[in-house]
User: What shape does this take?
Amino acid sequence: MIFNLGKKRSEKLKTSLSEIKEGSFDFEMIEKYFENKDNSEVFHILSDKTCDDLDSEKLFCFLDRTNARIGQ
Assistant: This one.
């Protein structure tokens, strides 16, 4: 059971988490954010080639379950 949610609410949450989110993603803005933030303490950064090989944009769309842009 997910915390102490009611059964109906718990089922709705499980269903919504299993669905791929519809909508648009502004990958140019996401990339600009990453390039402009301080990455000096980052353990590892994937190369552009690795991101292309993994089809990272498609993977991101599949994994993203946020409700707010800032969560992305």
The two ends are 27 Å apart (CA to CA). Residues 22-71 form one domain. The CA atoms of residues 21 and 61 lie 7 Å apart. The chain is about 50% helix and 0% strand.
